[in-house]
Amino acid sequence: MRKILRNNHGNMKISRIAYPLGLFVCLFIYVAYVKWRWAFASQRIFSITETAVGPRNQQYHEKLVTANRAVFYGIMFDAGSTGTRIHIFQFTQSAKETPTLTHETFKALKPGLSAYADDVDKSTQGIEELLNVAKEEIPFDLWKVTPLVLKATAGLRLLPGEKAQKLLQKVREVFQASPFLVGDDCVSIMNGTDEGVSAWITVNFLTGNLNTPGKNSVGMLDLGGGSTQITFLPKIEVTLQTSPAGYITSFQMFNNTYKLYSYSYLGLGLMSARLAILGGVEGKPDNELVSPCFPSSFNGEWEHAEITYKISGHKAGVHLYELCSQRVSEILQNKVHKTEEVKNLDFYAFSYYYDLAANVGLIDKEKGGSLTVEDFEIAAKYVCRTMEVNPQKNPFICMDLTYISLLLQEFGFPKTKVFKLARKIDDIETSWALGATFHYIDSLNRQQNKVF
Ligand SMILES: O=c1[nH]cnc2c1ncn2[C@@H]1O[C@H](COP(=O)(O)OP(=O)(O)O)[C@@H](O)[C@H]1O
Ligand SMILES: [Ca+2]
């Protein structure tokens, strides 16, 4: 009897220790698992294979796993000024090998988050719709180890701070209720330099320049709706020495340190520039905005940042291109820093550079292509001249092309400079999203190394 009692007493003691111990072991295994997923994610640098253009569903996922390739994902939301986009990146890795970017799923919605500044509750519908794409794409068992991040750009930078924070808080709530891995910093406004640097990482990774020592890097030009970025790796010391404060940035990624020239011009994105050229002010409705970049007989409306403006052409307009380029030059005067070195480097151009060139047939809509500053200028002159007699579907086409051609010259590019325009390289979107995902994974791993 005594023995039994003693045994019972002993069992109770064991279960009192066993319960918290079991809980601790489970927690340890879970944390170790998450750390393991991300540890291999940041070993040296990622590679990309032809499987990037492959089917991606549960069957494909199982095929990779059974082929002894571990699969993991990262989700990046790009909250741009004109739209919100989801990028779902799939990586695979065999034992002891560097991870490979195998696929991207991309979906975009309009308008951008800033359009909901006065009705925050409405912003969640689009975010949830995009999250559903991630749920369909990512196998259920990987949801809780897949990091989910949103970074907002010019649209939210241009909003009053309080309105922007309310929008971000709403998104944070939706993210926290989702089954994915969210950290404290999962939703934020990205600074302009990080935006340029991340896009530079993307394009240099996709062109194979990042992982090949001695290979030249390429520069990156991004023309968004609210801001525009220029980023390149200077090869000559003069550029580093003569650039103003805030234009040179050092960053570390995957054990390498890079010193880049990178600057984001807030307010010089195409939509913000249109407003400036028209003489309007962000957030303030005007009676009517008149511009020499529209044909003299033109009358219409333009919606920008939730305000509808009445727009029209100058009555006495004759040489549209000359008058328009004068006005655009005034707007760009003393705004942009010129560098000599850009003349000698290869550049990729994204976003509205691509869209505009594709719209007027300078490049193939799907495949992209190469063109010069002069091609933009010739197209601008042609469109401005013909739209007087032949009204265009897009009344801004003369203004936009004139703006692009002059902006590129302000950066220091000669008219003969050739640019590459690409929406995708190896079936991956040429956006800052991939570079930012690499950076996020890298920093997550560094944090975890500190914890363990
Ligand atoms: O990932 C992308 N894929 C394709 N086009 C994009 C992507 N990101 C931005 N764009 C294009 O960039 C332009 C607007 O930029 P955005 O809305 O991002 O402004 P912002 O960068 O100034 O915030 C649009 O033409 C949009 O189609
Ligand atoms: Ca953008």
TrEMBL record:
Domain of life: Eukaryota
Active site: E195 (proton acceptor)
GO molecular function: ATP binding; nucleoside diphosphate phosphatase activity
Binding-site positions, ATP: G225, G226, S227, T228, Q229
Pfam families associated with the record: GDA1_CD39 (PF01150)
GO cellular component, one term: Golgi apparatus
Keyword Hydrolase found: yes
Family the entry assigns: Belongs to the GDA1/CD39 NTPase family.
The protein, known as: nucleoside diphosphate phosphatase
